[in-house]
Amino acid sequence: MPFSDMSREALESYRPDLPAPADFDERWTATLAEARAAGGEVAVTPVDAGLALIEASDVTFPGFGGDPVRAWWLRPRGLTATAPVVVEFNGYGGGRGLVHERLLWAAAGYHYVFMDTRGQGSAWGNGGDTADASGGGDAGAPALPGFMTRGVREVETYYFRRLLTDAARCVDAVRTLPGIDPTRVVVAGASQGGGLAIAAAGLVPDVAGALVDVPFLCHIERGVRVAEHDPYQEIARYLAVHRDREEETFRTLAYVDGVHHAARAQAPALFSVALRDDVCPPSTVYAAYHAWAGPAQMVVYPYNGHEGGQAYQQRRQLTFLDHLWENR
Asked: Which ranges carry the Acetyl xylan esterase domain (predicted)?
């Protein structure tokens, strides 16, 4: 179904004035310091996934509050030289699934780490393995959405504060893995994963690059007002009941908004947007793209919805990273 957000010309110049909360940097600095101080080991267990050319491991690392977060680590079998790594984050409601589902980056010669999403993994795909331990113990086991309003009354209790911290801590953990070049860490993702990639690049500003596709969690207030579908509409339905909580809700959401994290991200970035996207409206994507502090490129898919460029965009990403390493 055609979706009209803004004209292409309007999108190209769309730079909304969205001041970050006054204590944005202070809060996030404290949050990451607390997570790092919580300690915890990075554990690596080899996995026999039946892949003759790919070596796979199950990684557990400490995320928010030191909570254990799972990830898959794939790389070409027999790789001996130090190599760059792509760290990818997942879309809303999905888990890390099975090892053999995501082979592109390892097949291209990269290390590849795919982070599980705490508490998610039961809406689509092949499941998740990470509980939202700080969100309620056993009650935080992988479940269906919605997560958008979980703990939203306060920044300290908000679900996405924990998840964004996990993304930053995943970068920390990846840099300790053998064979990985810690100066060539690329963060990546689509939809929710794109929002997490933006946040990781802002919270860990020395990553080498970012691949951001049709990102969620950007210009969130506008997304709530114009998106036709979830996850943004979870917030709209919540506020339809809690009519007196609009101000406090959007105050909390501002701390996870990708526009503010993009303004702190220095790495070269390749964005993509789909102009018929009624899940993450194009204007919300452009808001983050135009806020990005480092160099950034945008790829536009005029006739696609939230699926975006898919394999076509992956082909562009491979080329983008080839050029990135050539220019370093």
From this structure: 1-323
Q: Which two tokens stand for residue 14?
A: 């769309």
Helices (H), the chain: 8-12, 24-37, 104-107, 159-174, 192-203, 220-226, 232-241, 246-254, 258-262, 282-291, 311-326
191 is catalytic: yes
Hey, is 44 helix, strand or coil? strand
Domains in the chain and their CATH numbers? 8-326 (3.40.50.1820)
- Residue 236 is predicted with a pLDDT of 96
φ/ψ of residue 13, rounded to 5:
-115, 10
Q: What is the dihedral of CA 169, 172, 175, 177, to 10 degrees?
A: -50
Q: What letter would DSSP give residue 17?
A: -
Residues 169 and 63 sit within 8 Å (Cβ to Cβ) = yes
Per-residue pLDDT tens for 118-128? 999 999 999 99
In the residue annotation, 277 being an active-site residue is answered as: yes
Rg value, the chain, Cα: 19
Distance CA 193, CA 214 (A): 9
Q: Tell me, what's the pLDDT at 327?
A: 87
Name the token pair of 229: 């579908």
Instruction: Write down the pTM of the prediction.
Output: 0.97
Four-point Cα dihedral 130, 187, 179, 101, nearest 10: 60
pLDDT, one tens digit per residue, over 137-158 is 555 667 677 899 999 999 999 9
Asked if pLDDT for residue 87 goes beyond 60, the answer is yes
- Spot the catalytic one: 57, 191, 272, 283: 191
In whole angstroms, what is the distance from residue 140 CA to residue 162 CA?
12
Give the residue among 31, 64, 62 at the shortest CA–CA distance from 255.
Answer: 31
Mean pLDDT of the chain: 95
